[in-house]
């Protein structure tokens, strides 16, 4: 009987949550192309994103998100004039995040799979940039602080590395974001 009580207590403690289980996060970000094989010169872009996570164990959280880099190539000029292609990168990461938290501080890291979609927008004179999509992976790290006693509102800083391999391209991006999360 004592073994059964200890086993039950162990299971209950293993599933204990120190913060609410669901998380929705809004991100404002700056991204930079860190790959050696950029389609144009090195690119930088402002972006935004949203992600959702559900804590299934005290230290484990599956997550999914959508992140966007707005107009990374900017204005392209040639002998035919200048054109702003209004291109976009869309990243859809899905994976696991490992979480370590203290009283009101939280550190996390993880990674998983990634789907990338690049839309070229307005074509340049002479052609390109061309739309493409592909699969890859991502890595994430984060440090955050709870802004209220109930640990519902969080503020954090998060770098993400997106590594995608669409056909004829190798996209490598670092995105650094400030994030606000609501947990329930």
Textual characterization of the structure:
Helices cover 7% and strands 60% of the residues. With 184 residues, it is mainly beta. It has one domain: Beta Barrel (Porin), CATH 2.40.160.20. β6 and β7 form a beta hairpin. It is elongated. The mean pLDDT is 86.
The major pleated sheet works out as:
8 strands, antiparallel, barrel
Placed side by side, the strands forming the largest sheet appear as: 1-2-3-6-7-8-9-10
Return the domain count: 1
**Cα shape:** elongated
Q: Which fold name corresponds to the CATH topology?
A: Porin
Proportion of residues in β-strands: over 45%
CATH architecture: Beta Barrel
Element pattern in H and E: HEEEEEEEEEE
Report the mean per-residue pLDDT as an integer.
86
Helix content: under 10%
Ranges where pLDDT stays below 50 over 5 or more residues in a row are none
Number of helices: 1
Tell me the Rg in angstroms. Answer: 20 Å
Question: How far is the N terminus from the C terminus?
Answer: 36 Å
Topology:
Layout: H1 2-14, E1 22-33, E2 44-54, E3 60-70, E4 75-78, E5 81-84, E6 88-101, E7 105-119, E8 132-146, E9 153-164, E10 171-183
Antiparallel strand pairs: 1-2, 1-10, 2-3, 3-6, 4-5, 6-7, 7-8, 8-9, 9-10
């Amino acid at each position: 009987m004592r073994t059964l009580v200890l086993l039950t207590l162990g299971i209950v403690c293993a599933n204990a949550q120190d913060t609410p289980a669901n998380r929705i996060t809004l991100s404002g970000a700056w991204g930079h192309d860190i790959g050696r094989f950029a389609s144009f010169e090195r690119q930088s872009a402002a972006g935004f994103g949203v992600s959702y996570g559900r804590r299934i164990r005290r230290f484990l959280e599956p997550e999914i998100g959508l992140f966007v880099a707005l107009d990374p190539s900017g204005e392209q000029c040639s002998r035919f004039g200048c054109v702003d292609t209004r291109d976009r990168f869309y990243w859809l990461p899905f994976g696991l995040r490992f979480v370590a938290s203290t009283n009101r501080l939280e550190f996390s890291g993880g990674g998983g799979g990634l789907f990338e979609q690049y839309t070229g927008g307005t074509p340049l004179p002479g052609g390109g940039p061309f739309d493409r999509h592909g699969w890859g992976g991502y890595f994430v790290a984060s440090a955050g602080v709870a802004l209220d006693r109930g640990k519902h509102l969080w503020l954090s800083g998060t770098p993400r590395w997106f590594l995608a391999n669409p056909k004829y391209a190798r996209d490598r991006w670092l995105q650094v974001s400030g994030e606000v999360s609501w947990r329930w």
